Amino acid sequence: MLLRNALLASVLLCGTTMALAQDYLPILQYHHVDTSTPRSTSVSPDEFREHMDYLAEAGFQVVDLATALADIKAGVALPDKAVAITFDDAYRNIYQNGFPILKTHDFPFTVFINTGPVEKGHTSFLTWEQMREMEQSGGVFANHTVSHPYMLRLEDGETLEQWLTRMAHEVNEVEALLNEKLGHSPKMLAYPYGESNTEIRAQMAELGMIAFGQQSGVVDKNSDFTNLPRFPAAGNYAKLSSLKVKLNAKPMPLVSFEDQGDFASSEPVQMTLHFQQGDYRLQELACYVSGQGEAKLDWLGSNSVNVQAEKAFPVGRGRINCTMPDQSGRHYYWFSNVWIRAAADETYVTEKVKKN
């Protein structure tokens, strides 16, 4: 996977007014806006209001996600301090508690919907009528599959070909409903649980989809548009102090990286980062392993480093986050990578399964 980032400052001239512009985009990820839902995926209405008020007061420019991504790919500069807002799942509390706050600020936003519970009329999920109302005030609705599956797990007796067919159906069914019920689709997908692999990402490229994981980081034109990063902003990440750091993040100036694949084993994970030539504060790079603390850094030269966890990940998803201050000290370059460690009774589509 290549992340050949070129962070170039550009200047827009508008009459006699000079405004900085940026070629990258931090994206915020929310789920519930409620106090009675699981804390790990929730912000309270008060916390969400605090976040949105801060964006407005600090001069952030909340942009439409699909438009901003198209601009990044085309090399068109975004406004200075551009940021996008997203929600995963079609929870009704987004409409009840989040939407009024977003409307107050006239902020655009994107909701990735899983259509299974919507079509069944589940009272905890949005209705198509509510979505149409939200569209009138900047809402965009995108794909989160039909049933919110673990996309990398095989069902009993399922072949790899049948698995890929089932995953295509999960995505295509939602695309059809978006076009039928709302009249259009932005052709964007958020992977359930943030999980994808080489085959799924290739499938999304074939379907013409832009897709998002749940690793943290910043999007620029050299990002993998079948696995874009977002910053979680709920639960443990809902504090405004930590959100401020993420809102000022930049893409890590990498030429490439290697991560040993999508799956972790009983051995500690490691990855190698190769940095661009440039005036960077590489000596201040810091990487943190989820649940373990600081990672071991082994420099392989002036611009390459091996990043290693001390212990194996437990079953589930684990990640390593790396940050580095820029020369101004006001921003951090940011990069994150995620691995999955499957339990013995979970039939994930690992390299071993594919060989068998």
Key terms for this structure?
29% strand, alpha/beta, 9 helices, hydrolase activity, acting on carbon-nitrogen (but not peptide) bonds, NODB_dom, single chain, Glyco_hydro/deAcase_b/a-brl, 7-stranded mixed sheet, 2 domains, 5-stranded mixed sheet, 356 residues, Polysaccharide deacetylase, signal, TIM Barrel, Immunoglobulin-like, globular
Task: Describe the overall structure.
- It comes from Marinomonas fungiae.
- This is Polysaccharide deacetylase.
- One of its GO terms (molecular function) is hydrolase activity, acting on carbon-nitrogen (but not peptide) bonds.
- With 356 residues, this protein is of the alpha/beta class.
- It contains 9 helices and 23 strands.
- Strands 3, 6, 8, 9, 10, 13 and 14 form a 7-stranded mixed sheet that branches. Strands 15-23-22-18-19 form a 5-stranded mixed sheet.
- A hairpin with a 3-residue loop joins β18 and β19.
- α1 runs parallel beside α3.
- The chain is globular and about 55 Å long.
Topology of this protein?
Blueprint: E1 10-14, E2 17-22, E3 24-30, E4 32-33, E5 42-43, H1 45-57, E6 61-62, H2 65-74, E7 78-79, E8 82-88, H3 92-105, E9 109-113, H4 115-119, H5 128-135, E10 139-143, H6 160-181, E11 188-190, H7 198-206, E12 210-212, E13 218-220, E14 231-232, H8 240-247, E15 249-251, E16 254-258, E17 270-275, E18 286-289, E19 293-294, E20 296-299, E21 304-308, E22 316-325, E23 332-341, H9 351-355
Parallel strand pairs: 3-8, 3-14, 4-5, 6-8, 8-9, 9-10, 11-12, 15-23
Antiparallel strand pairs: 1-2, 2-7, 3-13, 16-17, 17-21, 18-19, 18-22, 20-21, 22-23
